[in-house]
Amino acid sequence: MDMAHLNLASYLFAALAFLLFFGLQLTARREGLPARLLVVATLVSGIWSLVLAVASLTASPPYHLMLALDAVRYIACILFLGSLLQTSDNLNQLIAQSRLLRIFVPLALLLVVMDLFMPELGFPPVTVLFSAHLSLAVVGLMIVEQVFRFGDRQQKWALKPLCLAYGAQFAFDFAMFAEATLFNHLDLMMWVGRGVVFALTVPFLLISARRIKQLSLRIFVSRQVVYHSTLLFGAGLYLLLMAAVGYYIRFFGGEWGTLGQVLFFALALLLLASLFLSESLRRQVQVFITKHFYANRYDYRIEWLKTNQKLAERADDACIYQTALDAMATVAKAPAGILLRRSDRMLSIQAHLGTITAEQAQLIASEVIRAEAFCLQSRWIIDLHEFSEHPERYPELTLDVPLLHKYGIKTLVPMIEGEELTGFFALGRLEGEPEINWEDRDLFNTVTHQLATFLSLHEASEALAESKQFDAFNRMSAFLVHDLKNIVAQLNLIVVNAVRHKHNPEFIDDSLDTLTNAVSKMQRIMNQLKQSTPSPESRRQVALCALLEEQVARHQSQQPQPELSCVTDATIRVDSERLSAIIGNLIQNAQDATDKSGSVTVSLTTNNDWVDICVSDTGSGMSAQFINERLFKPFDTTKGNAGMGIGVYDARQFVQNCGGNLTVQSELGEGSCFTLRLPLHS
Q: What residues does the Histidine kinase domain cover (predicted)?
């Protein structure tokens, strides 16, 4: 075959590809300027390829006409690419909005005129024309780069094939015209191969046209026809390639060349036959064609919103699992099913649907659990019909299919979160419904992830609420024990001194006062346990100086004895019982932290609308780190088993509830000062 026939075949191949793409676009619904410009660019490319193919049959091809058509093709392609960068309603508006196009289009049209009249004028030189066409290729590469760079992530996914196609065309032209500029003539082999290269870029344009909404091509061709045509086309390309390699072996193989060619071609046919017999390969090709050349069966956005609406319509939290099963059954069009959910490390039945009874659900569940290991490893949805017909697709899986079919179960959908299988949907199927395909599986997986997240949030909320209930109970118990500890300490002091002072009238009077105070505290504790919130009646007007005197007097039996300093008296509305307990606890803490030779002082001062109660000592003191990290942390104590670690925490909570605050000043070895600032008017 001579170069003329190769050139004819190359550009006829390109013309066929472009004109077929043009015909497909005519059957599509075109919206917007980019879609119309793509049609024009494809038609111009098809005519350009056809003219170059016919020109190869003439004795002296009209190169000036070829170069002019080449420039026209560049104008059409770059206008289309420019329309992807601008939002324009018509061509004039597009050119007016783009500075690059305002410069490029007139210069390209001038180049068309120069190409047409070059033989008659003899000017400019051929090298200048080649350089001009080289510049067109450079402009094309620039605008392709801009189209891809300025798109967001979703747009890049749609534009990537298109940019690859036009990038390959412009890059090939750049290489060809660059060499022509250097050597003052076009390379014949590159010129011939150009048609094949351009034809191979058309599938990429088709993919992008399918992905971009404005250029959407709704190709109503039978899926089976496209599927088998693709396989035959691929087989043809494979055989051509193998034939070329076989010819190379024969040409360079010497006396063994013919035998090597025969053996190689036989092995190639054997490999091709094995590929065609591979069901896995055929299914992958079929899914690829369906995904990229046909509209999706489901609109996942709509399905997602429908599932959300279904979940939002639940009556109460008690039927949350039933709601999830109903939502999944609606998506899968399942008349019956059960939901298994992991609880206490076991899969248990949480809901059932349709005619399935509780006893039948137990039988189904015992069978479904057998698929747990397989689904966790493969993350597959099990179609029981496919499992019956092709068990080899589900290796190492054993199920009693007749039992599951007896109760109407047709599909098993695992619920996998991270690396853990957290549940199963066992679903039925309506009579006459087709077998589930890859689109059904994608939809089921999407909705299952949505429902798994929904159930996990619900379960986490329940666990958190339960934890809060236990936390509230533990906190209440801790405060109760803390108050009882102080009461027991007072009663124990009476018991210890009773034998020695039982005949002392003053001791008897003091003991009676202590017992009266203990009974009062116990009654207050019982009232608090009966009420969920503090009663407003517990607050009354309290003379602070008298309250402090009472607490100082009660702690005189322990060294160092506390001293009271009331610069002025003040009366505030507060829960006197709790405030007395808090002051007493702070005095007790100060005494515990101070040697007998030290001092503990309680003072009362007023400052505008505030009253300050200070309990200070000259004891061991605290570091700033301890105050910041541990002092107000509940249940953290430095007294071992003798303390609860909630006294200071309780004091701060009480003061803050009264509208005040508690501050601490302390240094190691210097002592501490706790200041309760309370509002005079509450």
A: 479-682
Backbone angles phi, psi at 657, to 5 degrees: -65, -25
Secondary structure of 116-159 in the HEC alphabet?
HHHHHHCCCCHHHHHHHHHHHHHHHHHHHHHHHHCCCHHHHHHH
Contacts of 250 (CB under 8 A, 6+ apart): 257, 258, 260, 261
Per DSSP, helices labelled H in 369-504 are 372-378, 384-389, 401-406, 438-501
Amino acid present at 230: T
* Percent of the chain with pLDDT strictly greater than 70: 75
CA angle 419, 421, 426 (to 5 degrees): 150
**From residue 382, how far is each of 386, 395, 440 by CA, in Å?**
8, 12, 12
Give the DSSP H or E segment for 21: helix 3-26
Helix 153-183 / helix 202-211 crossing angle, nearest 10 deg: 150
SS3 578: helix
SS3 content of the chain, % helix, strand, coil (to 5): 65, 10, 20
Beta-carbon contacts of 464 under 8 Å, excluding residues fewer than 6 positions away, are: none
Residue 638 CA to residue 623 CA, distance in Å, equals 13
Spatial separation of the C-alpha atoms in residues 464 and 441, rounded to whole Å: 34
Neighbours of 404 (CB within 10 A): 22
Compute mean pLDDT per 10 residues along the chain, 682 residues long, and list them.
78 90 78 84 91 80 80 90 80 81 84 73 70 87 82 71 89 87 81 88 85 49 51 60 64 62 67 62 60 57 75 64 87 88 81 86 89 88 88 87 89 88 89 72 85 83 69 63 70 78 78 78 68 56 87 84 86 84 86 88 87 90 82 64 62 85 88 89 64
With both helix axes pointing from N to C terminus, report the angle between 438-501 and 647-657 in degrees, rounded to the nearest 10: 110
Please state at what angle helix 576-592 crosses helix 438-501, rounded to 10 degrees. 80
Q: At what angle do helices 202-211 and 188-200 cross, to 10 degrees?
A: 30
The answer to whether the bond into 560 is cis (omega within 30° of 0) is: yes
The DSSP code for 561 is P
Query: Rounded CA gap, 668 and 622, in Å?
Result: 5
Coil, strand, or helix at residue 573? strand
Amino acid residing at 540: R
pTM of this prediction exceeds 0.85: no
C-beta of residue 194 within 8 angstroms of C-beta of residue 6: no
